[in-house]
Design goal:
Immunoglobulin-like; six-stranded mixed sheet; four-stranded antiparallel sheet; 19 strands; 35% strand; binds 2-acetamido-2-deoxy-beta-D-glucopyranose; Ig_sub2; transmembrane helix; membrane; transmembrane
Length: 296
C-alpha cells in the first residue's frame, strides 16, 4: 500500500505541489559560421504526460533587441514557425526534447534565444532557459575612396568602409609602392577607417591598399593616387608674363579694331544715307511710269 502511494504520488497531489518541470540549456552560448546549421539545445524534465506540452522559442536579435520574434512554437502537437524562418527552423526531438535546428544561418539570426516549456498541470521551475547565438561572417568587400586636393602641397583623405563581418573586421591601410609601408588608420566607428595625408608630394603618388580582415578572412580594395604637380614656379612666372603680354596685345588689337570699325561705321552710315537717297530718288523716278502704266 505504501509502495502504491509512492508510484501514484506524482500523478496526484505530489505533481502539483512538489514535482516541477525543469528546463536546462546544455549550452549558454554558441557560435556558428554564417550559412552553416546549428542545433540550439533545450532539455526539460517532467513527470506529467506530454499531451499538453507547449514549447515556445523566442529570439531577441542583436540587431533589434527591442522587437523579439517567436521563432517556433509547439502546441498540442502543432508546430508554428515565424514566417521569416519558414523552411529554416524545425524541432529536432519533440516531444522528448525542445532542441531546434536552424539551417542556413544568417547574421540576423544572432541574438538571445529563450526556450520556454510548459507541461500543465506541472509548473515550471524554471520553465525557461536562455542561450546566446553568435553568427560569424567573413568581411564583405570593403569600399575604398579618396577625397581632397591632389595638387602638390594639398591634403588627401583615404577612406575604407566595410559593410559586414563578425567579429568586426580590422581595417588596415598600406602604401604598396615603391616599398610597402603601413599607414596610421583613424577608425570612424567599427566599420570605417581613414588615413590623412597632408602636404602631398610626388612621393605620395602610388597604389594604396585597404584590407578588412577577421578570423574568417580578408578582403582588399585599392586606391591609385597620382599627385598632380603644376609646372615649376619660374616657368610659371614666365608663362604669366607671356600670358599678360599676349592679353595686352589682343586688347590693343581689339581697341584698334573697334576704333577702325567706329570710323568706317560712320563712313558707312553716311554712305548708306546716300544710298537711301538714291533709292528714294529711284522710286520717285519710277512711280510716274508705274502710274502711267496703270492708266494705260
Ligand atoms: C536542414 O538541413 C538538413 C540537411 O541539410 C535537412 O535534413 C533539414 O530538413 C533542414 N531543416 C529545415 C528546417 O529546413
Ligand atoms: C611640404 O613639403 C615640402 C617638401 O615636400 C616642404 O618643403 C614644405 O615645408 C612642407 N610644407 C609644410 C607646410 O609642411
Ligand atoms: C596607377 O596610375 C598610374 C598613372 O595614372 C598608372 O601608370 C599605373 O599603372 C596605375 N597603377 C595601377 C595598379 O592601376
Amino acid at each position: 500500500m505504501r509502495y502504491d502511494d509512492l508510484s501514484v504520488c506524482p500523478y496526484l497531489l505530489g505533481c502539483e505541489t512538489s514535482a516541477a518541470l525543469r528546463v536546462t540549456m546544455r549550452e549558454s552560448s554558441l557560435e556558428v559560421v554564417q550559412g552553416d546549421f546549428v542545433i540550439l539545445p533545450c532539455s526539460f524534465f517532467t513527470t506529467s504526460p506530454l499531451s499538453r506540452l507547449n514549447v515556445i522559442w523566442t529570439l531577441a536579435p542583436f540587431s533589434s533587441p527591442e522587437s523579439p520574434i517567436q521563432v517556433i512554437v509547439y502546441d498540442h502537437g502543432q508546430v508554428i514557425e515565424d514566417p521569416s524562418l519558414i523552411g529554416r527552423v524545425a524541432f529536432a526531438g519533440i516531444p522528448w526534447s525542445a532542441d531546434i535546428i536552424l539551417n542556413d544561418t544568417r547574421i540576423s539570426d544572432a541574438g538571445i534565444y529563450r526556450c520556454m516549456v510548459n507541461n500543465p498541470p506541472e509548473a515550471g521551475d524554471p520553465g525557461i532557459g536562455e542561450l546566446v547565438l553568435t553568427v560569424l561572417a567573413p568581411p564583405s568587400l570593403p569600399a575604398c575612396q579618396w577625397d581632397g586636393d591632389i595638387e602638390l602641397g594639398g591634403s588627401v583623405t583615404l577612406s575604407c568602409t566595410v559593410a559586414e563581418g563578425v567579429p568586426a573586421p580590422e581595417i588596415h591601410w598600406d602604401k604598396l609602392n615603391p616599398e610597402e609601408i603601413s599607414l596610421p588608420v583613424n577608425m570612424e566607428g567599427d566599420l570605417s577607417g581613414t588615413v590623412q595625408i597632408v602636404n602631398v608630394s610626388s612621393q605620395t603618388s602610388g597604389l594604396y591598399r585597404c584590407s578588412a580582415s577577421n578570423v574568417l578572412g580578408t578582403q582588399n580594395c585599392y586606391v591609385n593616387l597620382s599627385i598632380y604637380s603644376p609646372p615649376e614656379r619660374s616657368s610659371g612666372i614666365l608663362q604669366g608674363v607671356l600670358l599678360t603680354l599676349s592679353m595686352t596685345l589682343v586688347l590693343l588689337a581689339l581697341l584698334v579694331l573697334v576704333l577702325w570699325l567706329h570710323r568706317t561705321g560712320q563712313d558707312g552710315k553716311w554712305k548708306d544715307g546716300k544710298d537711301e537717297e538714291d533709292e528714294c530718288y529711284n522710286e520717285i523716278r519710277y512711280t510716274p511710269s508705274l502710274m502711267k502704266r496703270s492708266f494705260v
